[in-house]
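EI: anyone free to look at a 321-residue chain?
SC: sure, send it
EI:
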Amino acid sequence: MTHAPDASRHVIGIDAGGTKTVCQLADATGRIVAETEGGGANLQSAGELGVEKVLHAVMDEAIGSREIVPSVICLGIAGVDRADDAAVVEAIMRRIGYKARVVVTNDALVALVAGAGDGPGIVVVAGTGSIAYGRNAANRAARAGGWGYVLGDEGSGYWIGRHALRAVVRQADDRGRATALTPLILRHFAVARAQDLVHQVYYRGLRPSEIAAIATYVQQAHEGGDEVANEIIDSAARELAAAAASVAKRLGMNGDTFPFVLSGGIFRAVPWLVEVLTARLHDVAPHATVSTLRKQPAWGSVQIALAELAGGANLPVYVHS
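SC: here you go
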């Protein structure tokens, strides 16, 4: 005899990204009771104290005045595949975890679960940063990318924005072709000349998320037929597809039928990237489907928390490269 879930018990699922953090409070049936949003919670850019403040704020706001003590909290956050970052994040959650059972995992996994459930699949995440992450039928996982904006994040919003800025200054130096990106970006920064970008970029100390915001102008320039913008988007798609191909190869999924899930704000800001990347992903795995994630990735965190509540989340184990 099966018993209905105890709706008086609750879980919290959190997706902590570089630009924003989304928290969902759900009852044991999976019904979302509250959803809150805060700023970015990336350890590299926000620091330990900044991450703790954001996580504490979104959880407190979600619970509000309700007399609820969550039974399980699942946090999806970048960097927890690295031992040092994992230790920091786990210490944060011990301090603010409401004495709940806490599951800390990669933010790419929660996006994959939100889009593909517990089955095999590969998620390509492109927000401020980028990563490809997959799980096969044997519950083995692999990842490519996620190295941060200095070492990697190819195809991400930051990567696209940085290439757009470079195209503008290359035109100013007569080292590159004329591009419609120049007036768009100069207007964005309210400057008259490319030379004035030096102050905006270096002395103002633009955050990676602010440079990622420039990606929307690459889409605008593409819509006007700008070849430089087209090449930036095509290069981004090539980089993201290469990351997905690496994951598929290591997991032995190239010939399988599974979903590719595209997650992250850049797929909304640069919709042509979805079209170009979809074609490249079909070359990687011809039998796979490609779809853009419509739910909040935090929904994946809720599902993992519910599984933990029901007896234990079955998190995938990384294959050895």
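EI: The chain has two domains: 10-116+294-318, 148-292.
SC: 👍
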